[in-house]
Amino acid sequence: MDDDRLQQLQHLLDAEPVPTRRPTVATLEDKLFHIVPVLDHGFVRVVDYMGDDAAIVQAARVSYGRGTKSMRNDRGLIRYLMRHRHTTPFEMCELKLHVKLPIFVARQWIRHRTANVNEYSARYSILDREFYVPEPEHVAVQSESNRQGRGEVLDAAQAQAVRDLLRRDALTTYESYEHLLNDAGDGVPLREGEPQVARELARVNLTLAYYTQWYWKVDLHNLLHFLSLRMDAHAQYEIRVYAEAIGALVAAWVPQAWEAFADYRLGGAFFSKQELDVVRGLVAGGDLDTLLGGSDLSGREKTELRHKLGAD
Amino acid sequence: MDDDRLQQLQHLLDAEPVPTRRPTVATLEDKLFHIVPVLDHGFVRVVDYMGDDAAIVQAARVSYGRGTKSMRNDRGLIRYLMRHRHTTPFEMCELKLHVKLPIFVARQWIRHRTANVNEYSARYSILDREFYVPEPEHVAVQSESNRQGRGEVLDAAQAQAVRDLLRRDALTTYESYEHLLNDAGDGVPLREGEPQVARELARVNLTLAYYTQWYWKVDLHNLLHFLSLRMDAHAQYEIRVYAEAIGALVAAWVPQAWEAFADYRLGGAFFSKQELDVVRGLVAGGDLDTLLGGSDLSGREKTELRHKLGAD
Amino acid sequence: MDDDRLQQLQHLLDAEPVPTRRPTVATLEDKLFHIVPVLDHGFVRVVDYMGDDAAIVQAARVSYGRGTKSMRNDRGLIRYLMRHRHTTPFEMCELKLHVKLPIFVARQWIRHRTANVNEYSARYSILDREFYVPEPEHVAVQSESNRQGRGEVLDAAQAQAVRDLLRRDALTTYESYEHLLNDAGDGVPLREGEPQVARELARVNLTLAYYTQWYWKVDLHNLLHFLSLRMDAHAQYEIRVYAEAIGALVAAWVPQAWEAFADYRLGGAFFSKQELDVVRGLVAGGDLDTLLGGSDLSGREKTELRHKLGAD
Amino acid sequence: MDDDRLQQLQHLLDAEPVPTRRPTVATLEDKLFHIVPVLDHGFVRVVDYMGDDAAIVQAARVSYGRGTKSMRNDRGLIRYLMRHRHTTPFEMCELKLHVKLPIFVARQWIRHRTANVNEYSARYSILDREFYVPEPEHVAVQSESNRQGRGEVLDAAQAQAVRDLLRRDALTTYESYEHLLNDAGDGVPLREGEPQVARELARVNLTLAYYTQWYWKVDLHNLLHFLSLRMDAHAQYEIRVYAEAIGALVAAWVPQAWEAFADYRLGGAFFSKQELDVVRGLVAGGDLDTLLGGSDLSGREKTELRHKLGAD
Predict the structure, then answer these.
(1) Closest partner residue to B309 among D148, D279, D311, by Cβ?
(2) CATH no. of A3-132+210-266
(3) How do residues A101-124 score in pLDDT, each as one tens digit?
(4) Domain spanning B3-132+211-266, CATH architecture
(5) Is D1 within 8 Å of A213 when comparing Cβ atoms?
(6) In this predicted complex, what is the ipTM?
(7) Which residues from D are below 8 Å from C107, CB to CB?
(8) How many angstroms separate the CA atoms of C301 and D2, rounded?
(9) Which residues contact C193 (CB under 8 A, 6 or more apart)?
(10) Under an 8 A CB cutoff, do D207 and C209 touch?
(11) Residue D230 bears catalytic tag
């Protein structure tokens, strides 16, 4: 936002590396401070990190001592920990991100409570004229099947009409915001003799599409939990793209933990007692349709199970 | 919002009391489910509670055992616990509130992480045409001395102009919201053949002045911490009035804890090492001006200390 | 421990019920304050509770609004929430327990951080001569297959020898404890002229088998998470019996949530990406042995998968 | 404990520094991995860290933006944040420690919930024959005035008798522990044909004086809160020395934050409403004795206030 803050970041990018004896990940060092663009004006970037794959192993070996000796290598141990939900060793790694994101995305994100946050305050400072407008291919109708999601994409003309409307209202509310602030800047002259309404009050006129930014610091276990929820197909598109961008950074940071997460969380699925009964019927040579017919799964659950089994 | 949800609450108000052996507070029972209006459309109301003053004492006596025998009565013990920041016994009480509040207030509120929250989701449901417009006496200019706060109130005509602008933009964005939703209701006809844009997308067009609502459940220790920050003069007016409304409910619920909180938190002040030196100088018969002059407090700190000492 | 504390509890049991308009669960009221014995000297008992099955539904309907209308009844909605890991509505219920437990169990238990705790303090008070000695049928050798668990039970004579040894050392350390305290009581005379060593120091001589007690307050979501870990076959027997005793109380408190938990958590299982591939092979008519042979699951994982499929 | 784990640490000490672009603190790099002895067998050592004084400032400037411009320098801003309890910027720094500590100290320490922990598990591994015995100058009687603390130190002969008793019982319980484990090592021969009792069971025979170890990771805000409680004169000596050792490491890591903490927390004091009234009376030229006489402070509070004012 403010130029001086951007400059401060350039300063970090320009700085010479210094020696450290802490665990260091070369592939993440290369990405440090670099902006990864997300949506039309947003970004994520890694500001700092603590630990690496070996730090997970180090913590696990303190906890489980002799018990870990049978694990011949680090990768195997990390996979074992992930599979058996031994979560505390993953808490020994920490990531700090600088994120720029629309307010409605921030409102979903902040629900994850186990993290440290410093957000740009519109009580102290003035928000820029930057707001989110979805690309045409993401303007869609309300889903019928999924009460919280989107269905079919609008045709080009309709999508453009939606975008125009969103843009118009965002600009209107910002114009009023600037009028209320009456704070000269960006070519806006001060209206002498007129009030400068308090920033904490003027900002209530902005829409949820406006961008805010924050520092967000979280341990790897809680980060992976966040990603498992927000990379999910049911997550709103606009937060999912942030989760995916962060996922790529995590893959560069702790590749073994990421691989285990992909295999044992993202790519996996939970089966209820009733679903397990059906699967056990398959092992015994049963037929899926027959087994589903004989189960007491609800119609919705049968559909979900078919989907999990790749049989829909 | 939806009529059926209001009806559901009436149902609770109408229900006959039932017997319980749990700690029960008659003065809070009378307030249960009743709306306490806050701001122009908001409210707080107690939906449930666990514990009372005696529950704090009960927990403290388990922890401190014999050590608490010298405390002759419950009130004395609660005051002792508050004074010495023995916080865990206060965690043994829990309050559940139903709150309706503007989104910009919700954004501040949610920063308190140690609480349970279920918020109305505008991905699933449609927000009502209810938004916050400050009363004229709360429309003020940016403070000069306090970077985050408000200064003088605007004159009547200026205040009305601000209110008109806020109202106009809120209505404009809601009109677009309804247009995007294209969801018949409240006399708005369905536009046949036109898209019903996904709710999760349409809602980004609303301003931060719109009301949301949530269930918020928190233990007494964390609630008092929340209140100490949000009842403070530096808190934004619009959240302070919620804190004050909740404070009145807490006073009805756990009067002894509330009295101790008022004496040992709200009405008290922290003195730094350097400030203590000044105060100790006073004990030794020194004069405030002279002592301040001789201290290495910054100018700002001297002002703050005078204020704490009631000498400004 | 102290008589006055036991008396205090009798007082609660004897008290007449009072009317409340809060959600009340008759089946749990009957169990309120009653001790459920666990191990040789331990117990759990419900001291207070907030909410019921309907409170979960109430919170979910605020969050998901219209989205919940298709759920015809409360049971169906609770099952949906559990299945899809919508965890926040379960946080709206709270349980407060009084627990007496050996210190080594308390050390495992306290690792669950999202709870409120008030523990008996041996800095302030004196611990009773109560320690845990396992029943003969729970004295077992170190497991070979499970690095953290138990294998075969010892024969009767060996088990008795172990028990004798544990009892002997517990009594020896308590005798020293009393000697150090030099605090007359229970027939122990004061040794005039000799020091009364500080309680916070004397207690370090006791073994981990000694009983402590605490008030433990937790929301239903975090309680169920605790139970899913501690009712697991891999949990140490001595904490598992506490989890099972609490589980029975939860079943009396929120029967619909408990049923959903049993079906969708306790009785279910997670399948990794690689395991899912095998299961999908079954759907396609494949044979388990052949599919396992062709997979890149490790030997240990194949064993685990066979176990999950009931094919071991 | 195990040699291989110590070796692993030597490996870190021997490793060549590598370049990083993360914030790096030269004075802490020098201390990295080095053991700081505490008590007779314990230690703390820094295993990793994230951030520095500048990282606190960086986060604050994002939050408060323009509001921080009037703060001419980083030190002033950090002092401002500490004074006004703007705690979130301090959460942006993280410290990871390796700690070896007696179990009774670990039991107090773990009560601080906002931290990540990986503890050595005596279910998986065997604890060493290492236990705490206080130095003679820390063997003291129960305090009369402070129900949780120590009074006068014992004379030399009495202290030695206490130490002998503690040592004797610790050795006795360890001998039984080894007997139960029946796990050859350290010159202890295997008793062929006899059972090897499960480690999770055998360990219950050890006293609270035995050493455990863990990795403990915490953000700076929560660390300072921990230190303010555990460096306090009321904290048990055996945890206070850990807090002091950590404090010295924090001072090397974030010297500006540490200075502000010393001035605004450690060296300061909170005054209640009633105490403030007395202090305001001093400003008005009143006399302490007279003011105390006229106040409604309890006798205990008067003593505490005199102490805070250095007038006892």
Answers:
(1) D279
(2) 3.30.1360.170
(3) 999 999 999 999 999 999 999 998
(4) 2-Layer Sandwich (3.30)
(5) no
(6) 0.93
(7) 103, 106-107
(8) 29
(9) none
(10) no
(11) yes
